[in-house]
Task: structure prediction
Amino acid sequence: MQVVEAKGFRIPIVGLGTWALRGRDCARLVEQAIGIGYRHIDTAQMYDNEAEVGEGVRASGKRNEVMVTTKVQPTLLAPHDLERSVKESLAQLRLDVIDLLLIHWPNPRVPLAETLGAMAKVKRAGYAKQIGVSNFTVALLDEANKVSSEPLVCNQIECHPFLDQDKVIATCRKYGMAVVAYSPIARGGAKGDKLLERIGKAHGKTAAQVCLRWLTQQGIVVIPRTSKVERLEENLANLDFDLSDAEMKEIAGLARSSGRIVDWSWSPKWD
Result:
């Protein structure tokens, strides 16, 4: 599996997103994903499936080869709450350590320096190997990298061809942080897009695979979510072909400011 390296930490470039996966199906899908070659599994406290994700990882028999990410929910970013919640996440996952721990969403009511101080503390205590952020804007990335006493290895953001994220991506690169793309197929929006379909046809690939390859070819990590085993293999197979420079450029032309899918009342002011 190809990896993206950030500050000495290696992140497998294709992972499995588990948002909205639940129960037995979630555990089974995680186990199957690892069985066919996935080495990166993404969950979060907000997903309410850490126990099932951990079960799937353990059942695979490959725990030591798999990077597991979980994320602290925005209501628990005060230091005491964060520390308690990370211990709870570990108990739910029933794993020895969280490989990558992220702040899921910024919370303007809790000073970022306090939250990152607590994140650094849980890392130093051995609960997490590495820490990072999610849904951070350029301004938040600037602040985070200034106040964090531990290196921040990634920013997980909504990222697909229909949304212009150039500013945030450039800022991540400036700080040596990996970009991890959630909703990389735009929640199924790639399917049926005429340009992606046409390029896919030329390569014997689907529009979704073209979408993923456009990201991975830029060194962006992707964590598509699926509940279907056949899609697991399809998503992994985005790595066995290359898009031409002209195709990359054409796909980049799909970006628009209204392309954002994930936007909540608590979202930061986007770039």
The first strand starts at residue 3 and ends at 6. The chain has one domain: 3-259. Residues 79-93 form the longest helix (15 residues). Residues 3-259 form a domain with the TIM Barrel fold (CATH 3.20.20.100).
